[in-house]
Amino acid sequence: MTPVRVLVATTVVALLGGCGWLGREHEQRVVVVEGKPIDAIRSEKSLSPDALPYERGSLILAGTEYPIEIRQVRSPGSVEFVLERQGEVLEIERYVGDESSFRLVQGGGATYLPAIPLIFYGRDLSEPQTWNGEVKEVDVAHVAAAQIRAAREPINIPGGRYDAYRIDVQLRIDSEPAVDRQMKFWFVPNRGIVKREFGSTSTRLPSGDGG
Question: Which of 25, 91, 143, 158 could join 206 via S-S bond, C-beta 3.0 to 4.6 A?
Fold first, then answer.
């Protein structure tokens, strides 16, 4: 059997634009396997998915937009983003991460067991991932499954235009009746999750002044 030759090349990609979030450079890894380039996020350090993306933002709940402040709470291996309006907690996002992946634990009023992997470092972005577990809402847990896909996508949001990684999670909850839910996350290297959607009921993005 002929051994597979793997070449790892590091390139530098400049983000678009000229505001404070832009003009930064980040590394991406292009792995070439048998002549085919494989696009992958190199490491946790090259992405910094747990960064606080902004301190002020907007939270759209069931079509109503609320100005919010975002407070970051860190603990070993995990990060929480507490979304508050005038001191009242409206929502909490919780993620865990290590050198291999970055995963969603809580968000959109639900807890995911085990945590849903959003990013696998060093793995081909075009390769879909799967997840099986439980979705717990209030005190009720349902068996669920998900397909996770990643792609590069420019994103226009208050504050500017950014090069981002978009993660799509197609979730199917085995309730009665079964529920399909789509979650989306936009990661900007070194800036964290600049936008996220939990179905059509909860969207977080920067405020009109860019946060």
Answer: 158
Domain membership flag for residue 22: no
HEC string of the chain? Answer: CCCCCEEEEEEEEECCCCCCCCCCEEEEEEEEECCEEEEECCCHHHHCCCCCCCCEEEEEECCEEEEEEEEEEEECCEEEEEEEECCEEEEEEEEEECCCEEEEEEECCEEEEEEEEEEECCCCCCCCEEEEEEEEECCEEEEEEEEEEEEEEEEEECCEEEEEEEEEEEEEECCCCCEEEEEEEEEECCCEEEEEEECCCEEEEECCCCC
What's the CATH number where 194 sits?
2.40.360
Note whether residue 174 is domain-resident. yes
Specify if 110 maps to a domain. yes
Give how many domains the chain has, as a whole number. Answer: 1
Query: Residue 71 falls within a domain, yes or no?
Result: yes
Structure tokens at 185: 């996350």
Supply the Cα-derived Rg of the chain in whole angstroms.
18
| pTM score above 0.70 | yes
Range of the domain at 126: 49-206
Instruction: Write out the two tokens for 126.
Output: 């075009």
pLDDT in tens, 112-140: 999 999 999 999 998 999 999 999 998 89
CA distances from 178 to 45, 175, 181 (A): 38, 5, 10
Q: Could you count the other beta carbons within 10 Å of the beta carbon of residue 106? A: 17
